[in-house]
Amino acid sequence: MCDNIGMRLSNRCYAVTGLGYSAPWCVNAGFVVGDSVTLVVDTGGNALAAQTIHGYASAVRPANRLRVIDTEKHFDHIGGNGFFRERGIDVWGHAAAVRTPAEFEAESAEFNDAIPNAARRARGEAQAFFHGTHLENRNRQIDSDTRFDLGGCTVEILLTPGHTPANLSVWVPDDGVVFTGDCLINQYLPNLDAGGPQEWRTWLDSISRIEALNPTTVVPGHGPVARSGEVQVVADAVRRVLRESIARGYSPTSDQAI
Ligand SMILES: [Zn+2]
C-alpha cells in the first residue's frame, strides 16, 4: 500500500513520498523552498499526484513562484506535468526527455492490462487513474549541469545518466539533500531495462558522483527516504545490482533472468 506523506527533511527541502503508481510501486517527488521560488522535483504519475504535490509545495510559502524539474522521462515521474503546465508553471527537464502521445497511450493500456479482475479490465478502470491526466513534455530544457537561484538558496541540477540517458539529480548543498530520481531507489529492485552494460557502467559513475557530494539525505525515485548511514546502504544496494548485471550481461528483470 502507498502512504502518501509530505515530509519536511531540512530547512528548505521536503519529500512527497508514496504517490500511487502500478502496485506495488509508489513514486516519490519533492520540493525545495527558496525565498522567491519553490522548485518542485517531479510531478508524479497522474493529475491526482500532481495536485497533491502542488498543494504541499504551494502551502509552505504561498507567495513563491513555482518551477518544476523532471528527473527523467518515465511516466511515473512526469505524468503530472500537464497539471503544472495548465497553471502556467514552467517544467524543466533534460533535452532528451521527450515522450509521444502514442507512448502515453501505451502506458495507459499497459496499466489496464495489468488489472487482475476481468470485469474491471473490460471496464477500462485505468482511465480512472489517469483522469484529467494528459501528456506534457518539459517546456524548458537542460543539456548540462545547471544552477537555479531560488532566492537565498542555490540548487544544482546534475546530469546523472544511466537509468535513462536523461536522468537528472537535484542537489541542495546548504541542506545536504539530494533528490536522485531513479538513479537511486530504495528497497525496490532498480529498473535496468532501458539500457545494457554500457549504460549500467554510466549509471555506476552517476552513483559515484552522488556519493562524492556526501549527502546527509537522499530522496530516491522510489522507496523510503534515506538518512545519514542509510545513504551508503542504498547506494551500495543499487551498485551491487548493476555490477552483477554487467558481469552477467542482462538485467535482473529481463526475460533471461526469469
Ligand atoms: Zn521511476
Explain briefly what this protein structure is.
The chain has eight helices and 13 strands. By secondary structure, the chain is an alpha/beta fold.
User: How many DSSP H or I helices?
Assistant: 8
Helix content: 25-40%
Which CATH architecture? 4-Layer Sandwich
And the CATH topology?
Metallo-beta-lactamase, Chain A
Which term fits the overall shape?
Answer: globular
Question: Structural class, please?
Answer: alpha/beta
Number of strands: 13
What separation lies between the terminal Cα atoms? 25 Å
Kindly give the count of domains.
1
The arrangement of helices and strands along the chain is: EEEEHEHHEHHHEEEEEHEEH
Largest β-sheet summary: 7 strands, mixed
CATH homology group:
Ribonuclease Z/Hydroxyacylglutathione hydrolase-like
The percent range for strand residues is 15-25%
- So what's the CATH class? Alpha Beta
Low-confidence region ranges: none
Instruction: Report the radius of gyration as a whole number of Å.
Output: 17 Å
Description:
With 258 residues, the chain is α/β, with parallel strands linked by helices. The chain has a single domain (5-99, 135-257), classed as Metallo-beta-lactamase, Chain A (4-Layer Sandwich), CATH 3.60.15. 32% of the residues lie in helices and 24% in strands. The strands form two sheets. A seven-stranded mixed β-sheet has the order 1-2-3-4-5-6-7. A six-stranded mixed β-sheet has the order 8-9-10-11-12-13, covered by helices on one side. A hairpin with an 8-residue loop joins strand 9 (154-159) and strand 10. The model has no long low-confidence stretch (mean pLDDT 95). The structure holds zinc ion. Zinc ion (ZN) binds next to helix 2.
